[in-house]
Amino acid sequence: xxxxxxxxxxxxxxxxxxxxxxxxxxxxxxxxxxxxxxxxxxxxxxxxxxxxxxxxxxxxxxxxxxxxxxxxxxxxxxxxxxxxxxxxxxxxxxxxxxxxxxxxxxxxxxxxxxxxxxxxxxxxxxxxxxxxxxxxxxxxxxxxxxxxxxxxxxxxxxxxxxxxxxxxxxxxxxxxxxxxxxxxxxxxxxxxxxxxxxxxxxxxxxxxxxxxxxxxxxxxxxxxxxxxxxxxxxxxxxxxxxxxxxxxxxxxxxxxxxxxxxxxxxxxxxxxxxxxxxxxxxxxxxxxxxxxxxxxxxxxxxxxxxxxxxxxxxxxxxxxxxxxxxxxxxxxxxxxxxxxxxxxxxxxxxxxxxxxxxxxxxxxxxxxxxxxxxxxxxxxxxxxxxxxxxxxxxxxxxxxxxxxxxxxxxxxxxxxxxxxxxxxxxxxxxxxxxxxxxxxxxxxxxxxxxxxxxxxxxxxxxxxxxxxxxxxxxxxxxxxxxxxxxxxxxxxxxxxxxxxxxxxxxxxxxx
Length: 511
Hints:
Layout: H1 2-139, H2 143-192, E1 204-206, H3 211-217, H4 222-231, E2 234-236, E3 243-247, H5 251-267, H6 272-301, H7 308-316, E4 321-322, E5 325-326, H8 327-345, H9 349-358, H10 373-383, H11 388-395, H12 407-420, H13 429-444, E6 449-455, E7 460-465, H14 472-489, E8 497-502
Parallel strand pairs: 7-8
Antiparallel strand pairs: 1-3, 2-3, 4-5, 6-7
């Protein structure tokens, strides 16, 4: 039994070894087959790759040939284009050479012409000198003197032409403007038609008897000194019967003194204590009158909304006169005239009305502030933030500053209309006669004037000229020169008309 088992084991071992050998053999065969398949596949891939490589090489050669042909064609075209350019450049060079030759020939001709012109200029200069010398010898004048005579003649001709043209322009403008201006001004004057009666500030106080003078003076003059100190006005008590004269530069103070003195005379009690009390009451009354006068003027002129300080200054004009014309009445009338003219001309009616009312506001304080009343009034208006047109109208109504708006000349014209109406203003006989003499003296100071006459109460001066010295053209220039000198040297109300008369007479006698 043991031997059988061993044998079986040996048989099994041999079977297993054979199976293993068979397995190894089969696996080797499979591996060999796989290797052969791989080798065949790799050979096939290599063959395909070589075939593709040959195709690519052929395609690359074809592309190289094509590019070479294109490059050759392009190079051939470039060579052709360069050849054409070279040909054109050669032609251009030839043309430039030809042009250069032509320019050289022209330069030579120009040089020759300049030399010829220089010779001609020298010849002309020589001939001119000879002619000038001959003319000087014939005329007996040097070249400078002849030149001065020629320039003088040309200047006179130019002045005559200029004056003639100016007269033509002035005549045309006057013909076109006179009718419209006259219509506007006459319409304004007719619509306002203010009373010309002027109110003068009363500077005298009538006494019931001359005995009152002693009571006003008081013991050792204490009453009159107290009254003068309280009012700031000088009392002049002279030999004039039953009259006391009040003298002072401030019209409001004079009015306060007049009211106070009148009350003292009516009351009869005159002593320093009573004087101070009455003067205080008189000052309050005058302030009330001033305020009421300003308010009434604002109402009459139709200018609402003015500051109270301006209204008070306006009321002070009630006691101010200019050449006998009450200034408050004058500014109200000017305001109305300015409004009408502005409406006709299309200007700012409200600004013109206010400018006319306030144009003389500076006269209320011109005795306290230095400067012309127009500039003072403009400062007052500017200080109270009034419109610019109103400020310019006040400042320019005497042409001390330039016009900056249409309303400024409107205010000036309205002011002139109100002040220049017959009877609106007056002046003393002495001043009147002196102004007439000054007018005639100014007119007769010009060369060629034979006589002059101041007429129309000094509002016109008529000038008779010598016809052999002043012609028609020079007469117009003389009128303007006289007007300019009058404006620069004289002070006068309104305006002055200058008329130059040139008269030529031919006289013969029948025998």
